[in-house]
């Protein structure tokens, strides 16, 4: 018989290790996961009962997990009565999936919601989606990975896919950067007062706030986007500060004022995989090894203020940061998801020589 427990954080962390052995799955650090799953520390939540954590158990073994939560700001902004699920990970077993999803659905119904949608993982800038393709490719930091049985189990329960998305990877060594960085468009931008400033440790706090404001302005018209508060952004940035490489993030300025930003970090997933996503005695050795062998980076977000859009700044900003990555010894760069509806960003990825990495969809149903 399947037993569903609520609030067992240790089992929640252990679940994917138990059911996804020998797969590309990488877990967040256990300490970070505990921050995400606490109403005291995660500013995404306004009250302790804004979310719940469930795990499935059978014969003494953990068999899966799921969260149920409300994103009050999203529901208010878009006039929704929607509950959300996240971190849906389970064995390839219809009984386990049904038991977990039923608990999440009941949680949402009890709060008067008429639909449920996921995955939305519990970070300030939520990781989203259920993987539907590209399962063989290892994820970069901030990319979702799940096995091919998850979409099938969701559909069996009556969930339907929507909002298709793709993640990408760029081979920096082969990217066509020379003609872009030395081209007429780049020279014209510089002549017009545009420049690129790296995000150094002494300017990190100010630059992160600049990038948050740019994020909110540049993504304002995107489907489902909700402006990110300063508390949410700093909550997310807390986990990035210790891994940031100041060489590979930048703010684009127009006559000294912020106009756009690219936030990129080294991909720490290989290190987390080796550590088992736990802090132990070997952690300093893994961190040193990671810093000496950084070859993969990931672009967390890139945006340009609306006043400067349509002038070619976005692709030139990406070319600039890819050039900085190449000079720093990085070989590939991953990107977080781009929705099929975002034609401009898809064209930019194609021009940069990006190849599709993972396919994702949201899955939802009425209640």
UniProtKB/TrEMBL annotation:
Matching InterPro entries: Acyl_CoA_acyltransferase, BcerS-like, GNAT_dom
Domain of life: Bacteria
PROSITE patterns from the UniProt entry: GNAT
Xref: Gene3D superfamilies: 3.40.630.30
Any matching Pfam family: Acetyltransf_1
SUPFAM superfamilies xref list: Acyl-CoA N-acyltransferases (Nat)
Every N-acetyltransferase domain range: 197-367
Protein name: N-acetyltransferase domain-containing protein
Organism: Shinella yambaruensis
